[in-house]
Amino acid sequence: MLGPVILAASRSDKMRRFVSAAPGTKQVVDRFIAGESVDQVVPVIQDAAAKGLEVTLDVVGEDITTPEQAAAARDAYLELIGRLEQLGLGARAEMSVKLSMFGQALEGGHELALANVRPVVEAAAAIGTTVTLDAEDHTTLDSMFAIHEELRKDFPQTGCVIQSYLFRTEADARRLAAAGSRVRLVKGAYKEPASVAYQSKPEIDKAYVRILKTLMLGEGYPMIGSHDPRLIAIGQELARQAGRKLDEYEFQMLYGIRSEEHVRLAAEGHRMRVYTAYGTDWYGYFMRRLAEKPANLLFFGRSVLTKG
């Protein structure tokens, strides 16, 4: 299985330098990354809105080693929110944040991450939108859930992400569904040991369906993060069985993947949100996209071989 190998490479400085220098890298990165700056991503948001789509915006970058870098990440999101307000796009765009960017892994990281993310959540609420806390590897989740619970005291619309490949997630889903949370369910894109996570696709998919059923029957707002046609169809059926209206759940897919499906679902009346990443520190995000689907890796390989 190439996925775990690629995920391990996502933490390698040597592989980072190799991939960054490869002649075909830019072509593939451009498929998954909407740009390097706010100015470059604004037209992407406007185009999505014109197609009836919504977006969730991720300023990529996870390797934070100083409090100053964490503060800079906070400020990058505040800049983004300011631009959304100027352009009147708050209703079409929310933010996705990784707490590692806000200093979670540093000394005193839990308090630091909470202090940095709170003004972002406040600013988002002020323009009529919200923030979703992305899940990372399993060692960070207790901190993420505690921050999520704390933020929801003042901003109950704050969302979080759960991952079906982790054994713990079914219990997390029951708790979050009862609490009425906004919850994005994904399969998971980090290298996790067999002691905490399912390792085979059939097991992960079965867990995904069980967890999604829990969310659909709960009091919260499920966000179905998948490109898998079978899981999308199952999600529609579970929503129907639970008596949910079309605006009581949504689908989410990645920018650059199955774009025609984005438009099709929106045209059918579904809420369809495109996870749109931008920024200069794209390596970790890019490698996880390669690991998720062999076709992405093949696309990258062809690009490298055909560039001079």
What does this protein structure show overall?
It is a single chain. Strands 1-2-3-4-5-6-7-8 form an 8-stranded parallel beta barrel, surrounded by 7 helices. The chain has 13 helices and 8 strands. Helix 5 links the parallel strand 1 and strand 2. The longest helix is centred in the first third of the chain and has 21 residues. Helix 5 packs parallel to helix 6, helix 6 crosses helix 7 and helix 12 crosses helix 13. With 308 residues, the chain is an alpha/beta fold. The C terminus is likely disordered.
Descriptors:
single chain, 308 residues, alpha/beta, eight-stranded parallel barrel, 13 helices, 52% helix, 13% strand, globular, disordered C terminus
Topology of this protein?
Elements: H1 2-9, H2 13-21, H3 25-32, H4 38-50, E1 54-59, H5 67-87, E2 93-97, H6 109-126, E3 131-133, H7 141-152, E4 159-163, H8 169-178, E5 182-186, H9 201-217, E6 221-225, H10 229-241, E7 250-254, H11 259-267, E8 272-278, H12 283-292, H13 294-306
Parallel strand pairs: 1-2, 1-8, 2-3, 3-4, 4-5, 5-6, 6-7, 7-8
Helix pairs in contact: 1-12, 5-6, 6-7, 8-9, 9-10, 12-13
Task: Write down the secondary-structure element order.
Answer: HHHHEHEHEHEHEHEHEHEHH
- Side-by-side strand order of the widest sheet: 1-2-3-4-5-6-7-8
Strand content: 5-15%
Helicity level, as a percent range?
Answer: 40-55%
Label the overall shape.
globular
Mean pLDDT: 88
User: Radius of gyration, Cα only, in angstroms?
Assistant: 18 Å
SS element count, helices: 13
Give the structural class: alpha/beta
